[in-house]
Amino acid sequence: MNNLPTIKADFLEAGSGPMVMLVHSSVSGARQWRRLMDDLKDEFHVRAVNLFGYGGTPPWSIGAPQSLDDQARLVETALPTNADTVCLVGHSFGGSIAMKLAARLSGRVTRLVLLETNPFYLLEQSGRADAFAEAMDLRNCIKTFGALGEWATAAERFADYWGGAGSWQQMPAERRKAFAEALKPNYFEWDAVMNETTPVEQWAQLLPSSTLLVCDPNTVFPIREITAILRRSCPGWTYKEIAGGGHMAPLTRPDLINPLVRSFLRLQPGDDRAAPTHAS
Predict the structure, then answer these.
(1) Alpha-helix residue ranges (DSSP H) falling in the chain
(2) What's the confidence (pLDDT) of residue 37?
(3) Domain holding 68: CATH number?
(4) Which of 136-145, 183-192, 251-260, 267-276 has the weakest average pLDDT?
(5) Running DSSP on this structure, what letter comes out for residue 187?
(6) 108 plus 234 within the same structural domain
(7) 118 and 42 assigned to the same domain
(8) How sure is the predictor about 62, in pLDDT bands with cuts at 50, 70 and 90?
(9) Residues 89 and 179 placed together within one structural domain of the fold
(10) Which of 77, 184, 190, 229 is deepest in the core (most CB within 10 A)?
(11) Of the candidates 188, 212, 227, which is a domain's last residue?
(12) Under a CB-based contact definition with an 8 Å cutoff, are residues 160 and 82 in contact?
């Protein structure tokens, strides 16, 4: 954990009711949740935060590696002071942050939704060497070319890895430029997901039993392996598989993801057990 200056997260806000915090993925921002916010605002008070370097939140400028706890404490600044309880929703890197924040807030988090969460360090801890090496290859690409200022090269690799081969080439020039610029915070985000040390057994104790993990069974190898690790250690959670959505489904297929999120958030205590573990 770093001794950070007081920085408050920028956020988007909608609706009223029980509190829901949305934590975006890398190279995105709070705006990725606009459709979900529209779907939730009639029943929930929703805040979608911007992490370090996104929207109006200042970039990471501390001369030390970023940690998940740094990001979790940033998101916590957007939580209303009068919110006794909160539901958290996180996608990819945002999922890892949501896990850390849920542990920080303990019993105040009533529901946790993880959309292809990416705590890559668990792969190394669990001996899943091939999956960890694949994640490290991407991390090394971002670190190497980012340090050289060759962000277009890094962005092409990142876009094609998560969005599928050819994703970069299919982008218009202006979109490529914006994507490469939005990738810059990811240089620091890798430290947060790679340097975390919490064992999966501890996550099983710290996180709420009312946790939903959503994954495409054909997603990238490291995410499939992380999902398998969590399934084994957290059998009481709810698991849903969405075939065909891919890792970026919260952005590209909100028609598949948003109904699942809303239905889970609307469940009453004790209803989780009745929820199906797969969806097609």
Answers:
(1) 34-40, 68-76, 93-105, 121-125, 129-147, 151-163, 173-182, 186-195, 200-206, 221-233, 249-252, 254-266
(2) 99
(3) 3.40.50.1820
(4) 267-276
(5) H
(6) yes
(7) yes
(8) confident
(9) no
(10) 190
(11) 188
(12) no
Three-state SS at 46: strand
Mean of pLDDT over the chain: 94
pLDDT of residue 6: 77
Q: What burial class does residue 153 get, using C-beta atoms within 10 Å of its C-beta: 0-12 exposed, 13-18 middle, 19+ buried? A: middle
> Do residue 99 and residue 138 come from a single domain?
no
Quick one: average pLDDT of 29-40? 98
Distance CA 39, CA 45 (A): 11
Q: Tell me if 4 is assigned to some domain.
A: no
What number of residues does the chain have? 280
Instruction: Give pLDDT, residue 272.
Output: 57
Q: What are the pLDDT digits (tens) for 104-116?
A: 998 999 999 999 9
**Over 70: is that where the pLDDT of 274 sits?**
no
In tens, the pLDDT along 229-246 reads: 999 999 999 999 999 889
Give this prediction's pTM. Answer: 0.94
Contacts of 67 (CB under 8 A, 6+ apart): 1, 2, 191, 192, 195, 196
Among 31, 52, 4, 27, residue whose Cα is nearest residue 177: 27
Same domain, residue pair 95 and 210? yes
Closest CA to 92 of 233, 267, 275, 252: 252
Cβ 102 vs Cβ 109: under 8 Å: yes
Residue 227 domain boundaries:
11-126+197-274
Q: Are residues 115 and 213 in the same domain?
A: yes
Task: Decide if 227 is inside a domain.
Answer: yes
